């Protein structure tokens, strides 16, 4: 059974509702981690969460990181990275998207910033949600991005879509989210950010 999505205006309203964002709340890889032990504290970073409004149905843009990268090689991610001095999260997300996939920073319409997500490597990531109207021309940097693909936005409105899995990390069992995709494994920080976006969008 196909899901009837809210209108773009309704989705924008949900993303700009402080109460809905507060109910979603900040997330962390592990609430028990002592982030104060990292020199200088958590590293501020941002990712762009682009929603492309195709006539056939909107999709969330994702990247497959290059297998040659030293960190998180071959994993699914949003375009993004650490903030440079003086940058806002929105500016950093747009700059990183331009560098990684060649997205013209003038095109995204910023809709909202989601609550921060703390990663297991000590980054405090601000997800910046933006709307894009097709056609969207992208030129991925092959040194950083192996492929670009989309996850149907409709999946984020289906509470049964994501699954919960477990793995051992640093001697402890950790639970994590996985979103279904025919070709790519969507897990880790990317899956958690998608989960938080899903919670906000599904708020009535």
Strand content: 25-35%
Give me the CATH architecture, please.
Alpha-Beta Complex
Distance between the termini: 20 Å
Helical percentage? 10-25%
Q: Which structural class matches the secondary elements? A: alpha+beta
**What count of helical segments does DSSP give?**
4
CATH class: Alpha Beta
Largest sheet at a glance? 9 strands, mixed
Secondary-structure element order, N to C: HHEEEEEHEEEEEEH
Rough outline: globular
Write down the CATH topology: Nucleoside Triphosphate Pyrophosphohydrolase
Q: CATH H-level name... which superfamily? A: Nucleoside Triphosphate Pyrophosphohydrolase
Name the poorly predicted regions.
30-37
Overall strand count: 11
- On the 0 to 100 scale, the average pLDDT is 87
Alpha carbon gyration radius: 16 Å
| Overall structural domain count | 1
Fold and architecture overview:
By secondary structure, this protein is an alpha+beta fold. It has one domain (8-201): Alpha-Beta Complex (Nucleoside Triphosphate Pyrophosphohydrolase), CATH 3.90.79. The protein has four helices and eleven strands, in the order ααβββββαββββββα. Strands 1, 2, 3, 4, 5, 6, 7, 8 and 9 form a nine-stranded mixed sheet that branches. A two-stranded antiparallel sheet has the order 10-11. Helix 2 crosses helix 4. The longest helix has 14 residues, at 188-201. The chain is globular. The two termini are 20 Å apart. Residues 30-37 have low confidence and may be disordered.
């Amino acid at each position: 059974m196909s899901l009837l999505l809210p209108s773009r205006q309704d989705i924008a309203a949900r993303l700009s509702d402080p109460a809905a964002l507060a109910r979603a709340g900040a997330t962390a890889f592990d609430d028990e981690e002592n982030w104060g032990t990292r020199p200088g504290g958590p590293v501020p970073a941002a990712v762009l969460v682009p929603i492309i409004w195709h006539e056939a149905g909107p999709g969330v843009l994702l990247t497959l990181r290059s297998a040659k990268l030293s960190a998180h090689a071959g994993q699914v991610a949003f375009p993004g990275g650490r903030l440079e001095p003086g940058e806002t999260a929105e500016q950093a997300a747009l700059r990183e998207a331009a560098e990684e996939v060649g997205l013209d920073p003038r095109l995204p319409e910023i809709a909202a910033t989601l609550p921060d997500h703390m990663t297991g490597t000590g980054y405090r990531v601000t997800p910046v949600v933006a709307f894009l109207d097709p056609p969207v021309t992208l030129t991925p940097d092959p040194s950083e991005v192996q492929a670009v693909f989309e996850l149907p936005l409709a999946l984020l409105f289906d509470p049964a879509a994501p699954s919960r899995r477990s793995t051992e990390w640093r001697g402890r069992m950790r639970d994590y989210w996985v979103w279904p995709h025919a070709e790519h494994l969507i897990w880790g920080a990317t899956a958690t950010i998608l989960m938080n976006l899903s919670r906000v969008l599904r708020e009535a």
